[in-house]
Design brief:
Number of helices of chain B: 10
Distance between the termini of chain B: 32 Å
Order of helices and strands of chain A: HHHHHHEHHHHEHHHHH
Helix content of chain B: 25-40%
Structural class of chain A: mainly alpha
Number of helices of chain A: 15
Strand content of chain B: 15-25%
Shape of chain B: globular
Distance between the termini of chain A: 44 Å
Shape of chain A: globular
Oligomer: heterodimer
Radius of gyration of chain A: 23 Å
Largest sheet of chain A: 2 strands, antiparallel
Strand content of chain A: under 5%
Largest sheet of chain B: 6 strands, mixed
Structural class of chain B: alpha/beta
Number of strands of chain A: 2
Strand order of the largest sheet of chain B: 6-7-8-3-9-10
Helix content of chain A: 55-70%
Chain lengths: 371, 258
């Protein structure tokens, strides 16, 4: 046989991108109407999201802001659970550290809002980095227990240090003057979510994200391919912490007061439920999960207030949330992302099913399959 | 100068002396075989060479550089690439994605430029994909590029694993039982391919395999391990006629292998 092998580090024989060579990818493109349809649907969706804070009842604007912030936390947690494969029950502490850090800078130091954001991100990175160092030694269930201890420690001890956090009374955290209205602040939180989304997208699309996801499957294999296990594990924790810290800073100013009781263990648990129900490892999935779990209490309470259908006041969302979790674990392990996979593929300009190479594409790009 | 060498490697696991004073040299562009009965310590020796085990005593050198204290990934960066006895691939990735991660050490852009999505990083991503596809094409695996791993046969997985290790651009290719799951004709084709790779890439190859005709055909030099000790070493024709080796493999009274 004529085996001609090329050293991967050698310059590729054909550098002119676009001119097809043997073994080149044949990029799949939807038809012109297909592209137009996708662009229209995406624009409509984004537009609807954009005007949402305008059209909802004024009191609901803070709920939207909270949803966006929880979406950021879900993206942050997904970096650990989805890409690194390590469960964190400490994200309430990550969020709280960011929130209290921002509150301290805003109230005690009276510095501008952007300084508070920077400090919150730095604190998020610091606490996540610390946890990352632990995660180099401990993993899986044991790491989950360590993070649980961190969450409880933060709630009971760290956030109770009166000079730093204001103790039980809480810390005030005023909004920036240019976004003091609920409406404007909701858009700020949406911007934060967009930023987290962008960072997560770049992470997964570049070598760092690939290395991190390879580590999850096998550290031995990753190391044998020249990946520095320690470095990339820490990078995953630090990225997660930075996003959570930013989320904390935004969270602090939604109600403009930060109190320790908010950052209890149940909050960590509901972050984890958002990720699992949304779809572990899927960016859009976990954000949908966050939206679902943030909206659920409001919707169910409203329904309960009107129809009195649930026997115990105020616990409907917990019961329904747990049932949803069970349903996902048993029937749809991929969560909301799995359920909406055809739609997501369609919207992201991908062919309906994973395309097999070797199958000859029909001429003219006519193989545009609608979900 | 030898590309890869080991001096007096010993390792103990509790009461078991898994390797006892094993020395070994691999020269530029040689194909060196490592054989021995089950449990002789071949894979353990591989793990010591590649940094997955820390030997109790002894030293490992890559092109004269002392690497005994280096991590596995640091040795990979110095040109040592290996496969695993039980397929070392990332199970949740497609074949192509595996080859993308495997090129990790040759990716020119930094973590930050990747996160920021700078143009040169994106351009290089395209080049990485093209290289991966070229390599798959050369090994006759291109039709599998977008397949998830769980649909592939064991023999296919072993071949994809070789492609992935080649993607790390090694100087020394260390293969742990690469023929597992392959039929006789595929094994023959694989031997041709190894010889071609040595010729065209200037690769040095170390291979563990039980398939004696295969080893006698491709190896320039063979080391025989038995119960953690070096039983014999020499050119394949010397090993074939070695009575000790035949006895270790086939039992008392045997006089020659194959």
């Amino acid at each position: 046989m004529s085996a001609t092998t090329v050293r991967p580090s050698a310059a590729p024989r054909d550098l002119s991108v676009g001119a097809p060579v043997a073994g080149d990818e044949i990029a799949w493109r939807p038809s012109t109407t297909g592209i137009a349809a996708r662009v229209a649907v995406l624009a409509l969706g984004l537009g609807a999201l954009g005007v949402l804070p305008l059209i909802v009842a004024p009191l609901t604007r803070n709920v939207l802001a909270t949803t966006a912030v929880y979406g950021m936390v879900a993206i942050s947690l997904n970096v650990l659970v989805g890409y690194t494969g390590q469960v964190s029950l400490g994200h309430s502490a990550f969020l709280g550290v960011g929130a209290f850090g921002a509150g301290f800078v805003l109230t005690q130091l009276a510095l501008p809002w952007f300084a508070a954001v920077v400090v919150a991100v730095a604190l998020g990175i610091a606490i996540a980095g610390l946890l990352g160092v632990v995660a180099l030694r401990v993993r899986g269930l044991y790491l989950a227990l360590v993070t649980l201890a961190l969450a409880v420690f933060a709630e009971r001890v760290l956030f109770g240090i009166e000079p730093l956090t204001g103790g039980g009374g809480g810390q005030t955290a005023v909004r920036p003057t240019w976004a003091s209205a609920d409406l404007a602040y909701a858009y700020v939180c949406f911007g934060g979510l967009a930023l987290a989304w962008l960072l997560d997208w770049r992470l997964t699309a570049s070598k760092a994200g690939r290395a991190i996801r390879a580590l999850r499957d096998s550290e031995r294999v990753a190391a044998s391919w020249g990946i520095d296990v320690t470095r990339y594990k820490l990078l995953a924790f630090v990225t997660s912490g930075a996003i959570a810290g930013l989320a904390g800073a935004l969270f602090a100013s939604i109600t403009e007061i930060v109190s320790p009781i908010t950052f209890n263990f149940m909050l960590s648990l509901s972050f984890l439920m958002m990720v699992v129900v949304g779809g572990i490892g899927s960016r859009i999935g976990v954000v949908l999960g966050a939206a679902l779990y943030t909206a659920l209490p409001y919707l169910l309470d409203a329904a309960d207030g009107r129809y009195r259908w649930f026997p115990v006041d105020g616990s409907a969302s917990q019961v329904v949330g747990a049932l949803l979790l069970l349903l996902v674990l048993v029937r749809f392990p991929g969560g909301l992302a799995q359920l909406s996979a055809p739609l997501i593929r369609w919207c992201s300009f991908k062919p309906a099913r994973a395309r097999r190479t070797g199958a000859t594409p029909t001429a003219g790009g006519g193989n545009d399959v609608r979900p | 100068m030898s590309v890869l060498s080991a001096r007096g490697i010993s390792i103990r696991f509790g009461g078991l002396q898994a390797l006892d004073d094993v020395s070994f040299d691999v020269n530029e562009q040689e194909i060196v075989g490592l054989i021995g009965p089950n449990g002789a310590g071949k894979t353990t020796f591989f793990n010591c060479l590649t940094g997955f085990y820390a030997p109790t005593a002894g030293d490992v050198f890559v092109r004269g550089e002392h690497v005994t204290d280096l991590r596995p990934d640091e040795r990979t960066v110095r040109g040592v690439g290996r496969t695993f006895q039980h397929v070392g691939l990332v199970r949740s990735f497609t074949v192509l994605e595996n080859l993308l991660v495997a090129q990790h050490r040759n990716v020119g852009y930094g973590v930050a430029s990747g996160l920021l999505g700078l143009p040169h990083a994106r351009r290089e991503e395209r080049v990485l994909r093209r290289r991966a596809r070229t390599l798959l094409g050369e090994l006759g695996l291109l039709h599998l590029a977008d397949e998830p791993l769980d649909g592939l046969s064991y023999g296919m997985l072993k071949q994809v694993e070789v492609a992935a290790v080649l993607a790390t651009d090694p100087d020394v290719l260390m293969l742990d039982e690469p023929l597992a799951g392959l039929g006789p004709e595929e094994a023959d084709a694989f031997a041709d391919r190894l010889l071609a790779m040595r010729r065209e890439l200037g690769l040095t190859i170390v291979v563990i395999e039980h398939h004696v005709p295969f080893m006698l055909r491709i190896c320039d030099y063979v080391y025989v391990l038995n119960f953690g000790r070096l039983l014999a070493e020499g050119r394949p024709e010397e090993i074939r006629g070695n009575t000790d080796v035949a006895e270790a493999y086939l039992g008392k009274g045997a006089v020659a292998l194959a």
